[in-house]
Design a protein that fits this description.
Elements: H1 3-26, H2 34-65, H3 70-106, H4 109-119, H5 122-127
Helix pairs in contact: 2-3, 3-4
Length: 128
């Protein structure tokens, strides 16, 4: 891992710790659980993924209908598809981590999978 990435991770962890300390001072620490943080990550990845899908649809439309530089659009589509693959794999990792946290809490794998299916949007599942 590069120095820049490790510095960013340290900063994010420090901010997360400060958030938990402030929440504890306000008496709302129970809201900031590992499950909350994982839900936030999962929501963020899902939003980014849906933005990627919208951009891909726009590029495909541009490629098919608008007289533009086809080569340039194809390059953009290839790059975007790489980002989509990365986002999908990242999302799957967060879903798995979410399942693990829920499974620890409930101890029941069936309930865990049902809960995860409820929070996972169907349109993102189908598009992935």
């Amino acid at each position: 891992m590069s120095k820049k990435k490790s510095a960013q991770k340290k900063l994010i962890n420090e901010l997360k710790n400060q958030l938990v300390v402030q929440a504890e001072r306000l008496g709302i620490k129970e809201q900031y659980t590992p499950l909350y943080f994982e839900e936030t990550k999962l929501d963020s990845v899902s939003k980014i993924l849906s933005e990627f899908y919208m951009e891909r649809a726009n590029l495909e439309y541009e490629l098919q209908t608008i007289d533009s530089n086809k080569r340039e659009v194809m390059i953009k589509l290839e790059r975007l598809n790489a980002y989509v693959r990365k986002a999908v794999s990242l999302r799957q990792r967060h879903v798995k981590e979410y399942e693990n946290i829920l499974e620890k809490a409930t101890g029941d794998q069936v309930k865990t999978r049902r809960a995860v299916r409820q929070i996972t949007p169907a349109h993102v599942q189908a598009a992935a």
